[in-house]
Write a structure and sequence with these properties.
single chain, about 350 residues, alpha+beta, Rossmann fold, Elongation Factor Tu (Ef-tu), domain 3, 3 domains, 6 helices, about 45% strand, globular
């Protein structure tokens, strides 16, 4: 089974023309399944609610997504912010649907120019038609299939967005597998609690499975884990292994940052410069961490109010924002940990 996670900003009607609604929370989700020659192929749409008032659900949807879908109803600052968010998250493949409001006229060339200026020149314009959109999304899945397969070979990272106790099963944590694979009986390490866990069972698409891989939304039934080891920002990793007798060394997949050098790739639409003392927010792997700029002399250095965890292998782009400024998104960054 191959899953393509799609971050979408647009209407509920457009999402439902592509896939079936499955969940309504801070993000609304929709799923479409087709069988191909190599098994099931899943389109999973993740649509943030309450934009532009609340920007964090948008950041969360971008963390899990591989491609994007933006419905353009009018050209305004909100559209600009959404485009910047996708570009800053490194989502370079996606679909543009121009669907003006009844009282709006949209210059299509201006829309394309905005996407191109932000770095999204690879995005494709499609008609507001569910069948065509599904077909184009499956084409995108085929284009990035090697990336989807490669993600499954990387160390395990599962950011958790829900957890609860289920009668007869116990503690269950739910999240998107960002990279790697997780199997029944695997020994786990939970951040930031530094707690242990063992996989009792797994569910994907409401089915019990022996393994879940990158792209899957998985429910993990946990053994040997306390509920206070979990929070909305917890991350599930494989337990590190160090066996000198067998010559096996598998370190923890993420490193802890309390202070970082930020190599900021500032958005072309952002004119504000960061100054010493400024507060910034970092979004990556469902984490949303507050930091304060400590130095801008030569290198941009930020001290985090709480730990920020970064993947050691193939780290994703970190989205940097200032929630009290306009536009709110500064751009994307690579982080270097300072001791």
């Amino acid at each position: 089974m191959t899953v393509l996670n799609i971050a979408m900003v647009g209407s509920d009607d457009l999402a439902k023309s592509i896939a079936k609604a499955t969940d309504q929370r801070d993000v609304h989700t929709y799923v479409h399944k087709e069988n191909g020659p190599n098994g099931a192929r899943i389109l999973s749409i993740i649509r943030p609610a309450k934009l532009p008032e609340r920007i964090r659900p948008l950041f969360n949807s971008l963390c899990a997504a591989r491609v994007g879908l933006i419905e353009v109803n009018k050209i305004d600052s909100n559209l600009g912010e959404v485009i910047v968010a996708f570009a800053s998250s490194g989502i370079t493949n996606g679909i543009i649907v121009i669907n003006p409001n009844s009282d709006e006229w949209i210059d299509e060339e201006q829309v394309i120019a905005l996407f191109t200026q932000a770095g999204l020149s690879n995005w494709t314009q499609c008609a507001n038609e569910g069948t065509e959109l599904r077909s184009t999304l499956y084409d995108l899945m085929d284009e990035i299939e090697s990336e989807l397969m490669e993600a499954q070979t990387l160390p395990l990272v599962v950011p958790i967005d829900q957890y609860f106790n289920v009668k007869g099963i116990g503690l269950v944590a739910i999240g998107y597998v960002q990279s790697g694979s997780i199997k029944v009986h695997d020994e786990l390490h939970l951040l930031p609690a530094e707690g242990p866990g063992t996989v009792k069972s797994l569910q994907v698409m409401d089915d019990d499975v022996p393994i879940a891989v990158a792209g899957d939304r998985v429910g993990i039934a946990l053994r040997n884990t306390k509920e206070d080891h979990l929070s909305g920002g917890s991350i599930v990793l494989h337990k590190p292994i160090e066996d000198k007798n067998k010559g096996i060394s598998m370190p923890l997949a993420m490193e802890k940052h309390m202070k970082s050098i930020i190599n900021l790739n500032q958005s072309p639409f952002q004119k504000r410069k960061l100054l010493v003392g400024d507060v910034v927010h970092a979004s990556v792997d469902l984490q949303f961490v507050v930091g304060r700029i400590e130095s801008v002399d030569g290198e941009l250095i930020v001290e985090w109010e709480s730990p920020l965890y970064s993947r050691i292998e193939n780290p994703p782009k970190v989205l940097i924002a200032q929630l009290d400024s306009k536009p709110r998104i500064m751009g994307s960054a690579n982080l270097i940990r300072l001791e």
